[in-house]
Amino acid sequence: MEDEKKIMSIVLEDGSIDEVEVLLSFKFTDTNTEYMVYTKNETDDNGNVTIYVASINRTEGEEPKLGSVSSEDEWSRIKNVLKELSKNVD
Questions:
Q1: What pairs with residue 43 in β-bridges?
Q2: Where are the domains positioned within the chain?
Q3: This prediction's pTM
Q4: Which residues make Cβ contacts (< 8 Å) with residue 64, sequence separation at least 6?
Q5: Edge-to-edge strands, sheet with 65-67
């Protein structure tokens, strides 16, 4: 049986809505920062699926908002998580 895809609607800055597939969400407990890895199932010229990473900003009483990943340290840690996960893919 195939895993069910988790589809989510995100509202872009211009107010338009994108349907995306959530691949993974995780949290770094030391910084208490959450992240989401998602795709629009687009492919590049080599046939690779494009993925996106966003931080998740939660404010009590409001819908969670996606933010950017701004520091090189954050990117390095996220890349390490993705590398570890890719080792476990058959």
A1: 49
A2: 6-87
A3: 0.82
A4: 56, 57, 58
A5: 6-11, 17-28, 33-43, 49-57, 65-67
Phi, psi angle pair for 21, to nearest 5°:
-105, 120
Show the tokens assigned to 54.
């966003």
Give average pLDDT by consecutive 10-residue segment, the chain, 90 residues.
Answer: 80 90 94 94 92 92 90 94 80
Beta bridge pairs of residue 10: 18
Q: Where do the DSSP E strands lie in the chain? A: 6-11, 17-28, 33-43, 49-57, 65-67
Q: How far, in Å, CA of 50 to CA of 63, rounded?
A: 25
Q: Which helix (H) or strand (E) holds 75?
A: helix 72-87
84 close to 74: Cβ distance less than 8 angstroms: no
Nearest-5° angle of CA 47, CA 49, CA 50? 125
